[in-house]
Amino acid sequence: MLDGRQLAATMSVCSDGVSSSDAILLATAGYDHTIKFWEPHTGVCKRTCQHQDSQVNALTFQPDRTLLAAAGYQHVRMYDVNSTDMSPIINFEGVSKNVVGVGFLRDGRCMFTASEDRSAKIWDVKTGGLHCQRVFQVDQPMTCIVLHPNQVELFIGDQAGTIHQWDLRSDQHDKLIPEPDAAFQHIDIDSSGRQMAAINSRGSCYIWSLSDGATDQAPVQITPKRRLEAHTRYGLKCRFSADGQLLCTTSADHTAKIWSTKDYSLVKTLEWRNKDETQRWVWDCAFSSDSKYLFTASSDEQARLWNLETGSVVRTYKGHTKALTCLAFSDHD
Amino acid sequence: MSFFDDAEWLQSHIVNSFITSDDTGLCEMVMSSECASSGAAAGDPSERDTYFEPHSIDIVMDMDIGGHRRRSNTSQRLDKLKKERKNAARIKHIIWQPNADPLPDADRDFVFEKKPIVIAERPKTSLLTEQLNSLDLSDNPFTEYSKFDGRAHAGVPTRRINIFLTMAPPEEQAFPMSVTVVASARVSQLIGLICWQYTSEDREPPLRHSPELYSLHIAEDDGEVDWDFPPLDDRETVAKFGFSVLALVETEQTEVTVNVDGRDGQDQVTLSLKKRNATVAEILNAVVSQRPDLAPDNEVELALERADNSSTAASPLSADTRLSQLACQHFNLIKTTSARKHKDTAVVEEPNFSGQMSAMEATVYQTFKVNMLSSLVIKAPIQLGISGDRVEIDPVQMRSSLNVSKFLSKPRAVTYQIDCIMECRLLDVKYGGRAVLRLVYMLPSDGGYKHHDLEADLGTAKEIVRKLEYILDFRSSMNRKTYLQQKEKRTLLGTLSSGK
C-alpha cells in the first residue's frame, strides 16, 4: 500500500493527460464549450476537452470510470477518461432540445437521459443497439432525473413542479405535485434509498422518506417528511453525501448550505468573499466519499474545494473562461 | 559557370540561399541588413552588369521578424478542416431510433432487474483527504505557474519547446525535457512553468526556490548552450520567439564592483547579486547597506554610472535599468545634487531604457480597447489592433440591453494597411485622464484623407501614438511623405494668413 505522499508522487509523474491510475477524478464544465479534468489535490488542470457548439448541462462518470458523459444541447457526448484526446469518442443524438440530466445504471450497460423535449430515454451504451431502449413522455419540459438505487425506478422533475416516478419494469408511472408552478431543479436519493430530496426554483427543499412497496413489484412508497426553506432565491442542486448524513443545497444566492439529515438543521453556510468579489451562483456540488470535503462549481468561472469542518476554501480550480454549471467527481471504485 | 564572376553577385546569392533555407528567420534578420550595408559601400554600381540584380525580388524583408515565417491562412485553414474531419470520423455516432420491436413485458423484468441496495463500506478517510493531507503545497513552490501548461489547454495556441537542463547530472543533460507552454505566456512565466514541471517530475537536483534565479538561453539541438547570445528577455511573450530548443541556466552570481569616493579616498564595494534582473536601484540599496556612511542626504542623491566604458561620456543610469541590459559589471558611484540629476536625466537617454520601444516591440501585434467617437456624440467601444503591417478596427459587442444601439450605426470592422495610415496624434486631453487621438488614413481608391477620432485613457493613447509613430517612421512610405508635405504647406499657409 502506498502512502499518500508516494501516491501523490506517482500520480504527478504521469502528467500527460488523465490516467485511470488517477484514483480520483474531477471534471468541470459550463458555458465555455470545454470540459476540464483536474488533479483535485493540487488544483492543476490535467486536460481540456472540447465540447463543440454547446454548453454542458450535466456531467457524470460511468460507473467503471472509463467514460465521462456530458449532456449538452441535443446530444450526450462521451469522453474517454484515459486518453489525452480533446474530442469525444461517442456522440448520442436524437434529442430535439437540451439534455438536462444524464446518469447510468449501476452495471454501466444503460444510460438514462432527461430532456427539455419532454422525454426521458434509456440508451444502450455497450452496443448502441435497441435492445434495452426505452422512452417515457411527459407533457412538460424536464429539468432533472435521478435513479433509485434499486436500479428500476427513475424520478424525473419537470418545469411545472411535478415529480414523475417511472418504473422501468412495469412502465407504470406516478405523479407527485408538492408545490405547483415551482419547477424542481434537482432531485437526489441517498445511497441507502431511504430518503429523497428535491429543490425547487423558489429555494425550497423537500425531503421525503422512501420505503419498499408491499410486494417486490410494487413501486417505492413516498412519505413527505420535511420542507426546508433552504434559500431565499432560486435553488439549483441538492445532493446527499455518500454516507447519507449530510445534504448540500446550492442556490442563486451565491451560497451552498450543508444540512444534517438527522434533524435537518443547518450545519454550515459556504460563502466565499474577496474584498471586492463574491462567489456567484453555485450551480453544482459533490461530496468527497468521506463527507469531509465538498466541491462546488460557480458562475464566477471557478470550482472550489471546501473543507466542511472549517468551512474554508482549500483549493480553487481556475482556468475556465465562462460560467461553470456542472461538475463530476469520483474518488472510489 | 564562368560568367558568374561578379564577387558581389555571388556573395549576395549565397546570402539569399542562406535566407531562403532558414526557417527560423534569424538569417534574414541578421544578413539582410548586413548585405545591404556592404552593397552600399561597394564601388560604383554603374560599372556592374545591371542584369544581375544583387537581391532577389522574392525576398522581402517582412515585418514579422524574429518568429517563424507564418504559413498562409488558406493552408492553415485547410489543415484545420482536415484535422476536424479526421477527428469527426473517429467519433462514434449513436442516433436514437424508434424501436419497432419493443421489449415484451416478460423480458422487461429480466433486462431491468430490481437490484438489492448495496451500501458500500466506505473508508473513514477518503483518498482525496489522504492526498490533501499528504500534499504540502510548498513541495512545489512553482504551482502557480502550472496554469501556463499548454497540455492542459484546448484551442489555445501553444509552443512545444525542448528544454535542456544545465543543472541536471551530466549523464542526463543530453535528454531535454519537453515543455508545452501557452504562447501568450511571458518568458518569466515559461521559466516558472519549467521549474514547476521539473519539480513535479521529481527531477534531481532540486531547484532553487525562485524562478528568478534561472534564465533561458538559446541552445543548439544537441543541448550546447549558445553563450554568444544573452538570455531571453523575461518580459517578452513566448509567441515572439520561434525556438524549439532552449536551455535553462541557473543564473550565476554576478559580481558587481562599484567604485566609491569614501571619506578616505577611492574605495571599492563588491556585491554579489543572484538575481538576473536586479535593477540599478537595487544595486544602489545594496551598496548603501554595505556602506552606511554613503547614505544619501537631502542635498545629494546617489546614482551609478558605468566605469568600463571610456568612449562615451559617463552618465547616470536611470534607477529602473536592469543589470542584464547593461552587460557591465563595473560602476562608479556618483553623488548628484538634485538639480544636476534633473538636468542630466532630461538630456541623457539610456539606449536600452525600458520605456523606449525597440523595433521588435513596436511591430508586434497588440490590441487596445478604445472608444470610437463618431459624428454623433455616441461612443462605440472598439478594439484597435496594431501590428507592423496593418491596423485593425473591430467593434466590440455591446452588452447593453437597450435596443437603441441597434438603430445607431455601429462601427464596421475595417483593416487598414500600414501604408495607408498617414498619421496618429494626440488631439485633445480631456478632464479625468481621458484623451482623444486622431488616426488619419488615406482612401486607397482616390487618395483622399479621412480620419477616425478615438478616445482612450491618456496612458493607452500615448502608447498607441508612440507605437504607430515608430512603425510609420520605420516604414516611411511615399504616401505619408506627400501627406506630411501637404500638411506642412497648409500650416505654413495658415500661419501666413493669420500673420496678415
Automatic annotation (TrEMBL), chain A:
<dbReference type="GO" id="GO:0038203">
    <property type="term" value="P:TORC2 signaling"/>
</dbReference>
<protein>
    <recommendedName>
        <fullName>Target of rapamycin complex subunit lst8</fullName>
    </recommendedName>
</protein>
<dbReference type="InterPro" id="IPR020472">
    <property type="entry name" value="WD40_PAC1"/>
</dbReference>
<keyword id="KW-0963">Cytoplasm</keyword>
<dbReference type="Pfam" id="PF00400">
    <property type="entry name" value="WD40"/>
</dbReference>
<dbReference type="GO" id="GO:0005737">
    <property type="term" value="C:cytoplasm"/>
</dbReference>
<keyword id="KW-0677">Repeat</keyword>
<dbReference type="GO" id="GO:0032956">
    <property type="term" value="P:regulation of actin cytoskeleton organization"/>
</dbReference>
<comment type="subunit">
    <text>Part of TORC1 complex. Part of the TORC2 complex.</text>
</comment>
<dbReference type="GO" id="GO:0051897">
    <property type="term" value="P:positive regulation of phosphatidylinositol 3-kinase/protein kinase B signal transduction"/>
</dbReference>
<comment type="function">
    <text>Subunit of TORC1 and TORC2, which regulate cell growth and survival in response to nutrient and hormonal signals.</text>
</comment>
<dbReference type="InterPro" id="IPR015943">
    <property type="entry name" value="WD40/YVTN_repeat-like_dom_sf"/>
</dbReference>
<dbReference type="GO" id="GO:0031931">
    <property type="term" value="C:TORC1 complex"/>
</dbReference>
<dbReference type="InterPro" id="IPR001680">
    <property type="entry name" value="WD40_rpt"/>
</dbReference>
<dbReference type="InterPro" id="IPR011047">
    <property type="entry name" value="Quinoprotein_ADH-like_sf"/>
</dbReference>
<feature type="repeat" description="WD">
    <location>
        <begin position="228"/>
        <end position="269"/>
    </location>
</feature>
<dbReference type="InterPro" id="IPR019775">
    <property type="entry name" value="WD40_repeat_CS"/>
</dbReference>
<feature type="repeat" description="WD">
    <location>
        <begin position="92"/>
        <end position="128"/>
    </location>
</feature>
<dbReference type="GO" id="GO:0032535">
    <property type="term" value="P:regulation of cellular component size"/>
</dbReference>
<feature type="repeat" description="WD">
    <location>
        <begin position="286"/>
        <end position="316"/>
    </location>
</feature>
<comment type="similarity">
    <text>Belongs to the WD repeat LST8 family.</text>
</comment>
<keyword id="KW-0853">WD repeat</keyword>
TrEMBL record, chain B:
<dbReference type="InterPro" id="IPR011993">
    <property type="entry name" value="PH-like_dom_sf"/>
</dbReference>
<dbReference type="Pfam" id="PF16979">
    <property type="entry name" value="SIN1_PH"/>
</dbReference>
<dbReference type="GO" id="GO:0005737">
    <property type="term" value="C:cytoplasm"/>
</dbReference>
<dbReference type="GO" id="GO:0038203">
    <property type="term" value="P:TORC2 signaling"/>
</dbReference>
<dbReference type="Pfam" id="PF16978">
    <property type="entry name" value="CRIM"/>
</dbReference>
<dbReference type="GO" id="GO:0005886">
    <property type="term" value="C:plasma membrane"/>
</dbReference>
<dbReference type="GO" id="GO:0031932">
    <property type="term" value="C:TORC2 complex"/>
</dbReference>
<comment type="similarity">
    <text>Belongs to the SIN1 family.</text>
</comment>
<dbReference type="GO" id="GO:0005546">
    <property type="term" value="F:phosphatidylinositol-4,5-bisphosphate binding"/>
</dbReference>
<protein>
    <submittedName>
        <fullName>Target of rapamycin complex 2 subunit MAPKAP1</fullName>
    </submittedName>
</protein>
<feature type="domain" description="CRIM">
    <location>
        <begin position="125"/>
        <end position="259"/>
    </location>
</feature>
<dbReference type="InterPro" id="IPR032679">
    <property type="entry name" value="Sin1_N"/>
</dbReference>
<dbReference type="InterPro" id="IPR031313">
    <property type="entry name" value="Sin1_PH_dom"/>
</dbReference>
<dbReference type="Pfam" id="PF05422">
    <property type="entry name" value="SIN1"/>
</dbReference>
<feature type="domain" description="Sin1 N-terminal">
    <location>
        <begin position="41"/>
        <end position="116"/>
    </location>
</feature>
<dbReference type="InterPro" id="IPR031567">
    <property type="entry name" value="CRIM_dom"/>
</dbReference>
<dbReference type="InterPro" id="IPR008828">
    <property type="entry name" value="Sin1/Avo1"/>
</dbReference>
<feature type="domain" description="SIN1-type PH">
    <location>
        <begin position="364"/>
        <end position="473"/>
    </location>
</feature>
